[in-house]
């Protein structure tokens, strides 16, 4: 299997080389059916399901028969809240319900890894070294994304302790922030570029922490191996 790599950047936007990606997460054959079913279930689960209408038994009034049964030459009616009357009840109208769909955990995992692999095959994965900014500034977050070529919809996966970085990115348009374990297939497919840190790139699909090591295929920007 060919080595799968992604560009590695410093927190200032300088390219440091390349970093190897886990082939079991970023190098599988994307399963289109799994991604479709998982995304459909996620969008369905996001529906409020709060639409509601009243039946004839729930509409106020209409307890008295509007006119007598016979003798007037008109159609018989028992209540002015029948469905054929203006202001009457609704037949087969929507009621509050849940749109949740049961999706197996293995299918969710397969769909997420398929989406990540699809983005990796498009060279749309970026990895940043630990972001060590002292103060949150939207300007430096925008500059970092610009140096990595992330000028469209971007998904950024940050650790729970990257509060400074999170506050630097959260006000940017077309930027979605997620923590490891909360990245969804829809998030990955929505974005044009996915940005990880060296601490989160391995945990995105439940692979655990990811630390840069000598065997991670880290190279200088000129192609030579780092010392």
Number of domains: 2
- Work out the helicity level: 25-40%
Which structural category fits the helices and strands?
alpha/beta
Oligomer: single chain
Task: Give the C-alpha Rg.
Answer: 28 Å
- Could you describe the largest sheet, including whether it forms a barrel? 6 strands, mixed
Count of discrete alpha- or pi-helical segments spanning 4 or more residues: 6
Task: Provide the CATH top-level class of the largest domain.
Answer: Alpha Beta
Average per-residue pLDDT, rounded, comes to 87
Morphology: elongated
What does this molecule look like?
α2 (32-45) packs across α3. The protein has 2 domains: 5-46 and 104-216, Ribosomal protein L4/L1 (Ribosomal Protein L4, Chain: A, 3-Layer(aba) Sandwich), CATH 3.40.1370.10; 53-93, no CATH class. It is built from 6 helices and 6 strands; from the N terminus they run ββαααβαβαβαβ. β1 and β2 (15-20) form a beta hairpin. The longest helix is centred in the middle third of the chain and has 17 residues, at 105-121. It has 227 residues and is α/β, with parallel strands linked by helices.
């Amino acid at each position: 299997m060919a080595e799968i790599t992604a560009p590695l950047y410093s927190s200032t936007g300088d390219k440091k080389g390349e970093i190897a990606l886990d082939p079991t997460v970023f190098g599988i054959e994307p399963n289109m059916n799994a991604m479709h079913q998982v995304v459909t279930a996620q969008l369905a689960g996001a529906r409020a399901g709060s639409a509601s209408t009243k039946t004839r038994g729930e509409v106020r009034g209409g307890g008295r028969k509007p006119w007598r049964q016979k003798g007037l030459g008109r159609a018989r009616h028992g209540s002015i809240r029948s469905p054929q009357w203006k202001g009457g009840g609704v037949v087969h109208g929507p009621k509050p319900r849940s749109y949740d769909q049961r999706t197996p955990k293995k299918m969710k995992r397969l769909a997420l890894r398929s989406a990540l692999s699809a983005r990796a095959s498009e060279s749309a994965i970026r990895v940043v070294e630990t972001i060590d900014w002292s103060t949150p500034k939207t300007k430096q977050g925008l500059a970092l994304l610009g140096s990595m070529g992330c000028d469209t919809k971007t998904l950024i996966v940050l650790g729970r302790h990257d509060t400074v970085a999170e506050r630097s990115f959260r006000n940017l348009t077309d930027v979605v922030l997620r923590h490891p374990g909360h990245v969804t297939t829809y998030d990955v497919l929505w974005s044009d570029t996915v940005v990880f840190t060296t601490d989160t790139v391995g945990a995105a699909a439940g692979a655990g922490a990811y630390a840069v090591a000598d065997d991670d295929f880290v190279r200088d920007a000129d192609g030579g191996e780092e010392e």
